[in-house]
Design a protein that fits this description.
eight-stranded mixed β-sheet, Glutamine Phosphoribosylpyrophosphate, subunit 1, domain 1, 306 residues, alpha+beta, four-stranded antiparallel β-sheet, 8 helices, binds aspartic acid
Length: 306
Amino acid sequence: MNLAIMVHGGAKEIYADEAETHKAGCLQATQAGWDVLARGGSALDAVEAAVRVLEDDPTFNAGFGSELNSAGEVEMCAALMDGASLGAGGVGAIQGVRHPITVARRVLEDEPTLLVSHGARRFAETHGAELCDPAQMVSEGKRREWERKRAAGQRSGHDTVGCVALDRDGNLAAGTSTGGTNTNPPGRLGDSPLPGCGLYADGTLGACSMTGDGESIARVVLAKTAVDLLDGGRHPDEAAQRAMDVLRERVDGRAGCILIDTAGRIGWAHNEPNIAVAYRTSAMDAPHAFVHKCEEQREGSSEHAA
Ligand code: ASP
């Protein structure tokens, strides 16, 4: 059976001096997920492992280093979806946990649902999650950026993280984790923890993780739209691009996505200036990471076959 994993570190403007840290973070996360797959672990375990690495890396808007909301606090959303059962577990607007993706995993195992705010934190407390003071999830860099952007009335880019994977039993999983955007009012839920919107996994077709403008993504149920576009054997690159077309044509939205199919072929597309991604398939000796520009020529899609 082919193994495959792909991660993204968000679709946004990535300046030349930021490219290396984005690539390094995505590579490390892909390797962590790959190690799980290579020793026979499940796609869910691999996705959780990869997203945990990205949540620890302040380069990305998830876990430590999340965007601050309009009140200057970190509130996080994350979800995991299992393609075999169509079960999804998620947390929304949660504070004071180190790894929202692991809390989402526990929710999925306990009873697939979406828990938000204090209820999610209470669940984390009673299910052995790593807890912390909410202020400990605020990185100095994001605090400074928040102050600068707030003064200038600017919005941050979309640097939510996500991962999709295929394991040796042919199971697919998707995960997404975010700190939302710097203009979030407290309590806002974007697309990221909503099955069908910020992530989707269907064992008969494929799995998808999104990043981008959550309100637009949700209006066209974009992750499920992208997965459905795999029907008939369409290549994930083409399905991802068509999903972006739907987003632009129907709601004029901005986003990026990664997509994997049941054969372990991977694809991605975005209409934000850049996207940071990394992937590894059974056909490769090591993960490959890059920052892609929206108008740039695609790397040949045959390269992404498992
Ligand atoms: N999709 C996320 C949200 O709307 C934001 C992002 O991708 O950065 O919460």
